[in-house]
């Protein structure tokens, strides 16, 4: 083997080894951003946080600022879902009284009802 051929062989084998990989990383599918688009809305996963951030400062236990009832438990919220939906979507007298929540929050609670008022 002459010198030129030897260099050529080294370069080629270098390329081959550099480009080969035993890992399957490149072939793994991207993580699914929404693993289960058909999942149902539940109180624990979706509704509880909306109520605690927007309602419990008044509808807590004990209640405050003259709120007429507490919304601290799953049962409290479930039993009053119709009154809740009507007031969170009421433009002239909304709950919370400071103004309507974003529509994503409001439709989440509607969807929770449509999905059957699941706890978890
Ligand atoms: C700043 C205090 C305050 C916050 C925050 C608040 N409420 Fe109220 N809520 C009241 C008061 C006071 C009343 C009674 C007077 C009235 O009906 O407007 C009331 C009444 C209600 C009623 C009774 C309606 C009826 O006619 O029986 C519902 C349902 C309700 N709130 C739901 C909610 C929900 C759901 C949230 C959060 C998204 C919320 N409230 C946030 C103070 C609050």
Quick rundown:
Helices cover 46% and strands 0% of the residues.
Structural account:
This protein has helices at residues 3-19, 43-54, 74-79, 81-88, 103-114. With 120 residues, it is mainly alpha-helical. It has a domain at 43-114. The longest helix is centred in the N-terminal third of the chain and has 17 residues, at 3-19. The model has no long low-confidence stretch (mean pLDDT 86). Heme C is lined by residues 54-55, 57-59, 65-68, 80, 83-84, 87-88, 93, 95-97, 101. The site of heme C has 19 residues, from α4. This is Cytochrome c domain-containing protein.
Give a count of the beta strands, DSSP E runs of length 2 or more: 0
Q: What coarse outline follows from CA principal-axis ratios?
A: elongated
Largest sheet: none
The secondary structure category is: mainly alpha
Strand content: under 5%
Question: On the 0-100 scale, what is the average pLDDT?
Answer: 86
Bound molecules: heme C
Helix content: 40-55%
As a whole number of angstroms, the C-alpha radius of gyration is: 29 Å
Low-confidence stretches: none
* N-to-C SSE string, H for helix and E for strand: HHHHH
Distance between the termini: 73 Å
**Helix run count:** 5
